[in-house]
Design brief:
This protein has 159 residues and is mainly alpha-helical. It is built from 7 helices and 3 strands; from the N terminus they run H-H-H-H-H-E-H-E-E-H. It has helices at residues 3-18, 23-39, 41-45, 48-79, 83-86, 101-113, 139-158, and strands at 90-95, 117-122, 128-133. It has a 3-stranded antiparallel sheet with strand order 1-3-2, with helices on one face. Helix 1 crosses helix 2. The longest helix has 32 residues, at 48-79.
């Protein structure tokens, strides 16, 4: 991918995030993008970087979808007149296939940032992540959801 094209894309992303598409702000975004490309130049030239970018985008999209869906589920629980019957808290032991500190930290943070779930602890041998769930219907479903969602995408990115 051409570096100049990447700088333009990064400048447009900067302008979109800041909400200001003025010439000066686009120029500033271009400068920030140029510095980022200079710092990350060896990674940008690597052919696998586009694949990694797609995988990261997929993980971010999955996180946003999960964030929205769990926020709706938690809101539905909280707005029920019989909220006590809707809440079924539990701690679930999720067996881990990811092994590095970065992978486990990213997984635990994504789980914690999703409404209705909270990462509590990791086993000393890093084989299990303990997760508190606000309302559990099935332990197997919670484990499968985490393993096929966040954990699978994270493992794909770090391999």
């Amino acid at each position: 991918m051409n570096s100049a094209f990447l700088v333009v894309i990064l400048a447009l992303i900067w302008a979109g995030i800041s909400g200001n598409f003025s010439g000066l702000n686009l120029l500033f975004g271009g400068v920030i993008g140029s510095v980022a490309i200079f710092v990350l130049r060896s990674s940008v030239r690597d052919r696998g970087s586009i694949r990694k970018a797609r995988q990261l985008f997929g993980l971010a999209l999955l996180f946003l979808v999960e964030l929205l869906m769990s926020a709706i589920r938690v809101a539905a629980i909280v707005l029920r007149p019989d909220v006590k019957s809707a809440i079924r808290p539990a701690v679930v032991a999720v067996p881990l296939t990811v092994t590095s500190d970065a992978e486990i930290t990213l997984l635990a943070n994504m789980i914690t940032l999703t409404p209705g779930t909270l990462s509590i602890d990791v086993a000393e041998d890093r084989s299990v992540l303990y997760v508190h769930v606000l309302s559990m219907t099935s332990e197997a479903a919670v484990i499968a959801d985490i393993k096929t969602g966040f954990e699978a995408r994270i493992a794909e990115i770090f391999k």
